[in-house]
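S.,

As promised, the carboxymethyl coenzyme *A run. Input:
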Amino acid sequence: SGYFTFDPGFVSTASCESEITYIDGANGVLLHRGYPIDQLAEHSNYIEMGYLLLNGELPTEEQYREFDYHVRNHTMVHEQIANFFKGFRRDAHPMAVMCGVAGALSAFYHDNLDIDDPENREVSAIRLLAKMPTLASMCYKYNIGQPFMYPRNDLSYAENFLYMMFGNPCEPFEVNPVAAKAMDRIFMLHADHEQNASTSTVRLAGSTGANPFACISAGIAALWGPAHGGANEAVLTMLEEIGDESEENIQRYVDRAKDKDDPFRLMGFGHRVYRNFDPRAKVMKETCDEVLAELGTGNNAKLKIAKRLEQIALEDEYFIERKLYPNVDFYSGIILEALGIPTNMFTVIFAMSRTIGWISHWNEMIKNGVRIGRPRQLYKGYDKRDYPA
Ligand code: CMC
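Predicted complex:
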């Protein structure tokens, strides 16, 4: 009974009001609290941007110092959490582990779970932001059989993450500033993207009054799929599969992507909202060139294949007609690989980066008051029938 709008995939349904992020997909515009992403990527850093997303304005110097101090001082996780990791197989996908341990945080931090109190919401936001790099690096260390590294609060957010990933207790570790800058930029470019599948999942879970740690673990699960956050891993797998740089070989893969009988798609291409260049992809491509040049590492063959693939696709009628352009993840994997990060950690890094976006949306929703999210359906099943007696 009643009248419903039928909108599978939410192509034309606004599920909420929000003041955080604006996207104009036709013109390739992305603004966070009004500031263009390319300006933020150039002049800001992830912590300042995190403050902006969460609070609505850029911080004053003092507000920045305070926020940064709190994030640095919440990086450690409860010692019991290490045991939690040990329940997983060593070869489990790090995203599977991440879903579990991030959700488990609510069992450790129940002192602040009264979400109606803004101070509690802020502490939870800071805890999540601060602890995600610790959990992410623990996923990696567990996977390769090395000891977990405690965070170092004298380091910046990106430096500390690289330290916990690549440091070990036996020798001093020096953070490469080029790598830290690139890492911070990757965090910024993934920080928020309005009502995407994972953010909508966080909001829907949060609309029931569930605690923020549980909501974020729902978001991590939604992000995992290859149509969403899993795309960065899928791009690298695709570039590896293409392998050979020859023109005919690359063309063959573009042709496969156009063939409707072939499930192959160009990963890192296309977007629900952007019908133009993803502005994040432009910054990512520049960063990719800079990082590979400065570090002198990375598999340049993959970069060459990616660039040629992009060129061929952008000149092809199929991609032009459908307005399919490279998205944020077309180049991010190449940078992450150059930084020494294994492919199965790519989506974990996306989850870490998106945590500030998720928690900012959750906070906005709870602050403004929310009605439980409860979509309706068009029922297509049987009419009433009798159980065979
Ligand atoms: N390769 C080949 N064809 C494509 C691609 C692609 N990557 N993306 C879309 N198309 C075609 C699609 O087959 C359809 O063609 P037709 O009209 O003939 O049926 C048309 O373009 C429209 O595509 P759609 O699937 O209806 O678009 P959507 O808005 O439902 O899906 C998408 C968007 C991102 C899931 C999709 O473009 C895709 O699968 N891309 C590859 C995966 C990817 O890179 N995802 C990362 C998104 S950005 C990071 C993030 O925010 O998570």
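The chain has two domains: 21-175+192-224+342-368, 231-338. Residues 21-175+192-224+342-368 form a domain with the Citrate Synthase; domain 1 fold (CATH 1.10.580.10).

- D.
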